Prior knowledge:
It is a single chain. By secondary structure, the chain is α+β, with helices and mostly antiparallel strands. It has four helices and five strands. It has a single domain (2-141), classed as Aminopeptidase (3-Layer(aba) Sandwich), CATH 3.40.630. It has a five-stranded mixed beta sheet, with helices on both faces. The longest helix has 18 residues, at 10-27. It is globular. The model has no long low-confidence stretch (mean pLDDT 95).
Amino acid sequence: xxxxxxxxxxxxxxxxxxxxxxxxxxxxxxxxxxxxxxxxxxxxxxxxxxxxxxxxxxxxxxxxxxxxxxxxxxxxxxxxxxxxxxxxxxxxxxxxxxxxxxxxxxxxxxxxxxxxxxxxxxxxxxxxxxxxxxxxxxxxxxxxxxxxxxxxxxxxx
Length: 157
């Protein structure tokens, strides 16, 4: 089951957000923020700022009444900087390891796309780590196509 997140979910959301931070940091420690001492609280704080934003949604996936994943999605205005029109942006999809490969990520992705369609977003955009082939396969199977490649040059020694 997928439902909107509530303030009562923030501790679980923070835990999952911290898992996301650790995963990305392990992929590229120069590109992604270090998780720090308490990423759970930091990510819970951030997601809490999104819960009451009418231009964003945090949706949770439940299995046996337990949160096993979430998706964070938002409407984004036209961006000259990114050379794109208004779009929906799927920022996070996170699924606990014990619930992976059971269709949870696809359910969250479909719920995010539905949320965006219901609000008139003309397209959905997302980023995924270059090394995350499994996620890229999921997104491609849902009709997403590759459009950009982010590249990073470290300027500090």
